[in-house]
Amino acid sequence: MQTLSKTVFAFFSLLALSACSSPNAALNDHKTNPDSTADVVLEPIQIGAKRAPLHNESVFRRLDWTLSPYRTASGAPSHLYWQNRADYVIQARLDTLEHVLTGSEIITYTNFSPDTLRYVWVQLDQNLSNPKMRPRLIKQADDPTEPSLFRSPEFDGGIAISRVEVAMRQTIRKGKRTASARKPKVAAPYKINDTMMRIDLPEPLAPQSQVDIEIDWSFAIPFTGRMGREQCQQGWIYQIAQWYPRMCVYDDVSGWNTDQYLGAGEFYTEYGSFDVKLTVPANHICLATGTLQNPSEVLTPILRERLARAAKSDSTVMIISREEVGKFFTRPKQTGELVWHYKADNVRDFAFASSGAFIWDAAQWNGVLAQSLYPVEAQTMWKESTQYVRFSLKEFSEKWFPYPYPTMINVNGAVPGGMEYPMMIFCRERYNDFRLFAVTLHEVGHTWFPMIVQNNERRHAWLDEGLNSFICYYGEKEKYPARKARRGEGRDIVPYMRSPEHQPIMTHPHAILDLGQNAYAKTAAALVALREVVLGEERFDFAFRTYIERWKYKHPTPEDFFRTMEDASGEDLSWFWRGWFYTTSLLDQAVDSVHSLDSLDQVYNRVFLTNRKEMAMPVEMEITYADGTKERRKLPVEIWLQGNLFVAPIWSHERIVGVEIDPDKKLPDIDLSNNALFDPKWRERQGKRKGKNDADSNAQSNDESDD
Questions:
Q1: Exposure pattern of 367-377 as b/e (b: 16+ CB <10 Å)?
Q2: Which of 316, 374, 407, 543 fits a disulfide with 378 by CB distance 3.0 to 4.6 angstroms?
């Protein structure tokens, strides 16, 4: 038997890729002679008194969340969970000469809470345009070369309230049946606090009781924002949203949610039913949230026949073509006004679009009518819109949760970017096909978050924008597999995480410096990493679908999401939420050195790893052996439980000549220079071998060409 000294592999030199050393410096045990025997004691990194501070101990500390009797520790609603309801009956008239919307509404508000309410709060979103109120007063000067996204600085608007009356409802019980009798209505005192209005009730609203709130109002329609108007070649387009006084949410978390609408933070509303009658010019096409109740009064037989055909067609059917816009046979009458009557149930909001300039097309997917409205200016791109809507409905329904409504309408107009409402979305893009697809996908995706699963967007923008960006990441990859997705790649978020604007995802939306990178992109990247690196697709998808199923048509908090993901996946993910959502932790995993030693006809390799920053994540290594073969090894995040240093033991039949961590670049590692170590001599030999093979191949090609 040969002596052990003849079988010991020389310890190879590797690159020292620490933050303070040159990437070309060799990492090796400099005290070890390459010809030494196995009795030589290696000097690995010491684990003990001289180790680096254990900053990672706090990463794994269990997050302490407040437990409510209405929400379980598992993340599900408890048997005591309650939620109030708001049902609306609205009549509104669109004045296209003065560009004013006037309306009257009755809100039937049901108090399912255990609390007695002595007043109620109502949202007045249109006061965003009032120059004397907080949203405008805190607005900094815009760059004059760029349009304002959420309001027009020159626009003098706001909502005018002309009447507020209240009628309490008395619950009458007859045996096992109950009925609600309406008391006489009375004028109600009210106080406007910028974008909020408090209405004082004539008597307390007890649990399980109802009140009718009647409000008359009007406002001038702004040019742009989350709603607006635009003059096109064939007339004005009106995209109307945040247009009626609507109930604030009273919940078990914050009581009355009266955060001001300042522009960036979006919305939080109660679910309910809508019965809406919209009076618009007779030459207008007016589509809205819900189901049209009077098609024979507002649509000609030709349009009704085409819609019936579209309801059975996978291919797009023209309801009104470019050449037919404004033609007599498309409208029951050309002058005066018509009333479009819509009803919708179990929705959180209502929007509509109205214009005489609309091209209109439609098709069906799985019984859902996908529709598009757009002017001639947008036709080149928008002829594909309905198919993009169909794709989005299919993608999200089959992967996450079935689409629950009868229609989805995409509208092109003044609203910049995109905006989402139940059964209706607004998209501005007219010039780039992929961007139109991407914004359509994103806005349709908002049906799942927050139309079906409704979080408080004004406090936690990421819980709808981020979750939606996450599901859109896979939607984009499904439609365009060769194209890089806009959001979700771990590497793409590194510049933001290293910038001075980096903030925790849990930051209040109004205080976030870069909302797109924070609430959208970083959240999407976090969830992609959780799915693909931490939990795996099967466990993640089960937990994610569980969250949707538990909280559909309810009001979850971030903690409900976190708890559900842990409960359904079977993992304590405190370290993950803390690193990605609650802090500005950075990730820097490094390969410090590799030591190899012959032992019992095998090679015993030790790979020295360091976690150099605060964020902890699992480690995936691609190992290269001396014979050129490669192997993937995955290490769980628990390797960092006892500190930021870990020595991975690897037995093999060949010496390790190279290690690369995160080889697929899935993680937001801020320093890739220390992610790989390779034996420079092995690489040199590989380079010479490749060069010789290339030369032989060229010579053979030359010989063949001579023939």
A1: ebbbbbbbbbb
A2: 374
